[in-house]
Amino acid sequence: MGPDEALADDRLSDDEALRAVVEHLAATNPVWGWVGVYLLVGDTLILGPYVGPATEHTRIPVGRGVCGTAVAEDRNVVVDDVSKLDNYLACSVGTRSEIVVLIRDGGEVVGQFDVDSDDVGTFGPADEARLEELAGLAGPRCRRLAARLAGEPEGEAGA
Ligand code: SME
Questions:
Q1: Measured between alpha carbons, how far is residue 126 from residues 91, 108, 130 in Å?
Q2: What's the whole-model pTM score?
Q3: Ligand 1 close to Cβ of residue 96 (< 6 A)
Q4: Which atom of ligand 1 sits closest to the CA of residue 68?
């Protein structure tokens, strides 16, 4: 099953569907060394499903690092060479380039895809476009997971 199908498949839980997406992306892009989803809960990004080495950055305040900056500035971020950044949180010593693509639901940021590579300049416009496509499908699932993490009821919007 491809990532688009996984996101659309009602039989999969939100966690299972996002896990299928990051596993598919990691398996089909060998130089994508770390692929994960962060969920936005209040002013904090909380690590969701990921593939790659364990990271100490399981919670990132908005505004910190590449991930937190993307939310603070409401934009996707592509970094060709992380060694040239001051505001960078190293996940793995070998990481050289990174892409963060925001996940929205109803226009509101609810999370992000974060991908790292050990090569310089791995990520380009085609990668951003593909991740944006998946982000469009992942929005409702990320909103529900973020709400669960926040301990909020999952009541239907407008109910
Ligand atoms: N590099 C990210 C932190 C997340 S880890 O790479 C998984 C950042 O600077 O926000």
A1: 24, 23, 6
A2: 0.94
A3: no
A4: 10
